[in-house]
Write a structure and sequence with these properties.
The chain has a two-stranded antiparallel sheet. The chain has nine helices and two strands. α2 packs parallel to α9. 65% of the residues lie in helices and 4% in strands. The chain has a single domain, classed as dinb family like domain (Four Helix Bundle (Hemerythrin (Met), subunit A), Up-down Bundle), CATH 1.20.120. The protein is mainly α.
């Protein structure tokens, strides 16, 4: 059962950080971030309220919680990026994503509101990311939860995985449930 939970939780595998980047890998990562809003549109297409409120795995978040989490997480990443570009090694504020996923707005606000927010946010974010220079990509923020400096290029690498990771959780659930 543990193997099945791991497979459901990480259908594309756990994040494997790149050791460095090339202009090609950076373009791919930004392209991945750019495509997430359309992928999420596809993920929830034609799902009814009961389906949207189905956990993607036993003990996991519902599809609604996953979508709202992506909006919350990517908003935080966008702000962290801007802080790193405008301040010298800022210390970012971690947040308790599990508690955020249980706040009342998650069940009160329709999932399409977060999808719309993700579309707008990713338009701004990927525009900024695609304009960064080499020295910008080396700028860092300090993550006290991880107790390390995070260069912007590494953040881009991680978030290119993050959106796909959650989208695949939803797509795998759709497949298992025959909702495709």
């Amino acid at each position: 059962m543990e193997d099945l939970i791991e497979e459901y939780a990480y259908p594309i595998g756990r994040f494997q950080a790149a050791e460095n980047y090339t202009s090609k890998s950076l373009t791919q990562w930004i392209g991945s971030i750019n495509s997430i809003p359309l992928l999420l549109d596809y993920c929830i297409e034609n799902l009814d309220e009961a389906q949207l409120n189905t956990p993607y795995r036993p003990g996991g978040w519902t599809i609604v919680q996953v979508i709202h989490h992506i909006a919350d997480s990517h908003m935080n990443a966008y702000v962290r990026c801007k802080l790193a570009l405008t301040e010298d090694r800022p210390v970012i504020k971690p947040y308790d994503e599990k508690s955020w996923a249980e706040l009342p707005d998650v069940n009160d606000v329709p999932v399409n509101v977060s999808i719309t927010l993700i579309h707008a946010l990713h338009r701004r974010w990927t525009s900024l990311l695609s304009l960064l220079k080499e020295e910008d990509l080396a700028r860092e923020y300090y993550h006290p939860g991880d107790q390390r400096d995070v260069p912007l290029w590494q953040m881009i690498n991680m978030y290119s995985w993050h959106g796909k990771h959650h989208a695949e959780q939803i797509l795998a659930l759709r497949k298992r449930m025959g909702w495709s």
